[in-house]
Amino acid sequence: MHMKAKVIDVEYEQPEGASCSTHHAWARVPAEPAPEERAALKARIRELLRQENAVMVSHYYVHPDLQDLAEETGGIVSDSLEMARFGRDHAAHTLVVSGVRFMGETAKILSPDKRILMPDLDATCSLDLGCPITEFSAFCDAHPDRTVVVYANTSAAVKARSDWLVTSSCALDIVRALKDQGQKILWAPDRHLGSYIERETGADMVMWRGSCIVHDEFKGFELELLKKEHPRAKVLVHPESPAAVIALADAVGSTSGILKAAQEMDAPQFIVATDKGMMHKLRKLNPGKVFYEAPTAGSSATCKSCAHCPWMAMNSLAGVLHVLETGANEISVDAALIPRARVPIDRMLAFTAALKAGRPVGSLVPDIGAA
Questions:
Q1: What pLDDT score was predicted for residue 298?
Q2: Phi-psi region of 327 (alpha: psi -120 to 50; beta: other; left: phi over 0)
């Protein structure tokens, strides 16, 4: 049995007995700049990036201007972990992170000596908001025999309470390895991703009941109708989506997995169930292919696909320029948390590096345990 707690204007399910006292400003979407203003903003940002020894790292879900400018100036467009890893390994002293707050925190954990700036510190994530550390710690304490595995979309404090961090690109491999070693899993916070992993691996999992406000809205019955309209289209689905949507997928994967599938699959059309910010990169990399947004609403809705994170939309060129000019919106993480929060991140990085190199990963698993 679960209770529902309200955060902002969205309901987040949490374990019975939990309450969420987190309050947050609702997302503010910046106005689109006129063409002349856009060009001036980009030129000034390029200049300041050089002056400040700074580099931009942008998520696939932010505005196309921020994605393009990051790549044009030697930065990167990627998922949350690769953004942080790139920032850690880059020589720049300042990282400008276009994304949501947990991404800035992860960058700070991996690069504690660097200055991490974000266009808007109020840009957050429903998964992060829906998993406050006090309630999560109590949930962990109620299951002391389980290995705590948390998704990247969590606060620094929640990461510090975990044994492993995972992203959607490596979660299956890590949980499968834990299961093979006889580990039982406590998973947080996304229930759809957790359920997908549970089905795919057969692992023994108890789950926090969070969800992404974007992916949770995809509708299986509407997706079936869209498939009938476009019978040649393959369906690409992010695993934060509901099970009924995942069941209709030709490929299930992370943001990077969706990009790879679109490039490798022999199909002229794709229906994509993830944040529509991904469409920019998909279309750039696949100019001869057609991409449709998966539906998030029923037949009477005015918006057939509203799949865009309101917090990701808060990032803007003007915001990037403001923080470079003023040094505002610097991310800070409690210094006492950083060493502990880095442990599960480093475990994941070691595991994925070994996996990519074809080295055995089993030896990386037995030393897991509640620290």
A1: 57
A2: left
Q: What is the pTM of this model?
A: 0.90
310: amino acid identity, one letter: P
- Note whether 132-213+336-364 and 215-307 share their fold: yes
Helix (H) / strand (E) element for 110: namely: helix 101-110
Tokens read off for 203: 């692992």
Give me the phi and psi of 98, to 5 degrees please.
-95, 105
Residue 12 is inside which H or E element, if any? strand 10-15
Distance CA(342)–CA(110), nearest Å, equals 7
Q: pLDDT > 70: what percent of the chain? A: 89
Among 280, 275, 217, 226, CA closest to 248: 226
pLDDT tens across 263-286, in order?
A: 999 999 999 999 999 999 999 999
Q: Are 152 and 105 in contact (CB under 8 A)?
A: no
CATH number of 35-125+313-326: 3.40.50.10800
Distance separating alpha carbons of residues 72 and 143, to the nearest angstrom: 47
Name the residue ranges covered by the structural domains of the chain.
35-125+313-326, 132-213+336-364, 215-307
Q: Quick check: 273 and 214 in contact, CB under 8 A?
A: no
Instruction: Go through the chain and tell me how many residues it has.
Output: 371
